[in-house]
Amino acid sequence: MTDTSRRNFLRGAALAGAGAAVGGRAMAQTPDPAITELPPWQQYLGEGVDAAPYGMPSQYETHVVRRNVPWLTADATSSVNFTPLHELDGIITPNGLCFERHHGGVAEVDPAEYRLMINGLVDTPLVFDLQDLMRFPRENRIHFLECAANSGMEWRGAQLNGCQFTHGMIHNVMYTGVPLRLLLEEAGVKTAGTWLLAEGADASAMTRSIPMEKALDDCLVAFKMNGEMLRPEQGYPVRLVVPGWEGNMWVKWLRRIEVGDQPWHHREETSKYTDLFPDGQARRFTWEMDAKSVITNPSPQAPITHGPGRMVLSGVAWSGRGTIPRVDVTLDGGNSWVQARMSGPSFDKSMHRFYHEFDWDGRPLLLQSRAHDSTGYVQPTKDMLREIRGENSIYHNNGIQTWAVNEQGVAENVEVSS
Amino acid sequence: MTDTSRRNFLRGAALAGAGAAVGGRAMAQTPDPAITELPPWQQYLGEGVDAAPYGMPSQYETHVVRRNVPWLTADATSSVNFTPLHELDGIITPNGLCFERHHGGVAEVDPAEYRLMINGLVDTPLVFDLQDLMRFPRENRIHFLECAANSGMEWRGAQLNGCQFTHGMIHNVMYTGVPLRLLLEEAGVKTAGTWLLAEGADASAMTRSIPMEKALDDCLVAFKMNGEMLRPEQGYPVRLVVPGWEGNMWVKWLRRIEVGDQPWHHREETSKYTDLFPDGQARRFTWEMDAKSVITNPSPQAPITHGPGRMVLSGVAWSGRGTIPRVDVTLDGGNSWVQARMSGPSFDKSMHRFYHEFDWDGRPLLLQSRAHDSTGYVQPTKDMLREIRGENSIYHNNGIQTWAVNEQGVAENVEVSS
């Protein structure tokens, strides 16, 4: 049996319901020098443990990096580097690949000089150094962080060709930190204290207003991500974690928390991070990130290269309001939907991984995914969003993404009417 | 109120049951230049996103690395680099800090040339390339991997001064891979096939016998860890995941799986990875890693530097037989035990994080932790293990670890009789 005839046989078996019959070549019929001969790397001693005190990815994975879109923002210090979602799997984003977005470049904070102040409407204004913070009880939680501008270029139609660029302003890591509630209790919030201002120690002095209710609910003052200290571009040594809410509020290099009795209306919550509606009015305070999903494989940067037959479609979904119990996928632009298979742990306000295994007949595909969150909310189409919000928005685009896949397996960012 | 008097006041408050009263200096009384003056990193634009396509830890964290013990094995290619457990938190080990142990150095496998063969007692011997494997349904699971020799030096008494060296042959990551069961089903295991041999493509051609029951239960043929491709030292591009079982069986650079009807009794399961008893007999096939725990902070590499008052004790626990619902800690060498606080997700055969917050009176401590697993098994003392197994063992030491902390907060590896 030749390679081809076996593959066809296996595809036939799969279609008849035999399940996972996809691959591997029968060996007797196809002697493979990669197996019958000893591979080169088995013929010499490899490098020892002295090589890498802090390990790095394989030399064959140098294409797996964060990438930016040079024209997207004014300059490098105010730009964004996107997570290569199409190269990842599971739900953990490795720290080195977490997207980064700065407004004044990466602050180089000396941890010995780090201080966090709590002031304003409190009984006792307090200053904490890093060690002070580490003497409070800690929690460990996995949460996604999504920039409000993720998919923002897509409001006016398909723009960027790759899920790294359309959806890569998100990462999902395990945080270790102190509940903000404990620090506020330590300072003693006065009765009138209903808002707080979080301020960063970078050159932009990023500031955002956060309602006290959220601060006391599930915010963390975090110093570790995926086990190790925060990365510089993620706010080393301390950032605010505001689960489920837009990333800009997760103030990095956290320097100060002021308690007040009303929001501050600073630049990043008025001029920016608001939603401009068709009538010219802007909606403020769209904090919670609505349920969203995207197919990461196949996608424009990750075409189908193995030809027809069984294949694995994969993607991620998340919601700022809870978990993702269900994701639907369509292969035909929404005419028919099937429920995807969820795999891996499901946490509150965390990324979820889904798969759909199917037998590709080699004909063009129009791929979409649609997330359902634990509140019953269903991810809308882009057209549904535009109907209400027009095309002037920049932020909070959680519309359904479409990839068109042609007979060669090449995928492209396209719009379909809905 | 001075710094010192406030600290004493707060400690008093904590002792009286006021809870988390630990830190922060009242600001009005102690103006802090780090707060009253703008820090240097807020006065210039930081580096932009071009700086690091693949991000790295802060320049202030260069001490957080894997370390080896030069005299421990014959040479660098057969040595071990330990995870810095005392620098980590939560339950995820970042890929760059996962301990590594090789027997022929790191194989540099070209993924385009990678092949996995399944042969022996199967209906159809098969060869898979990397893309073939990725066309099977995948699973995502977090598991610990512990070397059987972890804590091995401690059989003869306290030896190595630091949990990185006594307990650092463990890591805990999220794996993405294909259930081995699916590949075996694809080849069709003959009725007589009750064992398999996993072989690595490194210079040592590492081989281990694994019973079919385990292979069909929960083994994965994994290609990703914490979202990205396996690191070279962890078996890039493919390793076997054998949840809960000793690390040596998790064959890296997985090249071949042979199905047979009995174990192979190769070197690494006879001369090595067996347990030598006092009567000279060796126990084979101690696969499951018994429940174990260690206090990571404070510990010899992580002394108490903040003086008396409230503090956070932290550690990790795991079991090859299930989850860890409970960890006890003692501050006085076992006279009295208290239940630690578990924090973070609890997965089957995964690392668990525990904390114990207490008020340190500045007197010496004898710290121990004791894990209970979901089967009811309780971690034994080292003396209990030695009573049965003597002191000739190298592997499978899951005895309770003791750190002695003196008045200055300095911690040391010690033995206490039990």
TrEMBL record, chains A, B:
GO MF: heme binding; molybdenum ion binding; molybdopterin cofactor binding; sulfite oxidase activity
Residues in the signal sequence: 1-28
Superkingdom as given in the UniProt entry: Bacteria
Gene3D superfamilies: 2.60.40.650, Oxidoreductase, molybdopterin-binding domain
Domain Moybdenum cofactor oxidoreductase dimerisation positions: 284-401
Span of domain Oxidoreductase molybdopterin-binding: 103-264
GO biological process: sulfur compound metabolic process
Cofactor: Mo-molybdopterin
Transmembrane regions listed in the UniProt entry: none
Keyword Mitochondrion: no
Keywords: Metal-binding, Molybdenum, Oxidoreductase, Signal
Designated name of the protein: Sulfur oxidation molybdopterin C protein, SoxC
Organism (species): Roseivivax marinus
